[in-house]
Amino acid sequence: MTNFVHLNYSKKHPGVTRVESALALFAGTARNLAARVKAGLDGWSCSLAEARGDQRIWED
User: Where does the source fall among the domains of life (predicted)?
Assistant: First the structure.
């Protein structure tokens, strides 16, 4: 009788390897983009807080 059990399988799926390579390739770009988005949101938040403060000062 023939045994069809395969015990030698690859530990990594080729798709996972490609994704990891792509992530490593674009890691710097993603980091820079995240820093710019964070700086933009921080500036936006500061401008809203400043506008609220000005509105409180100049109200009655």
Answer: Bacteria
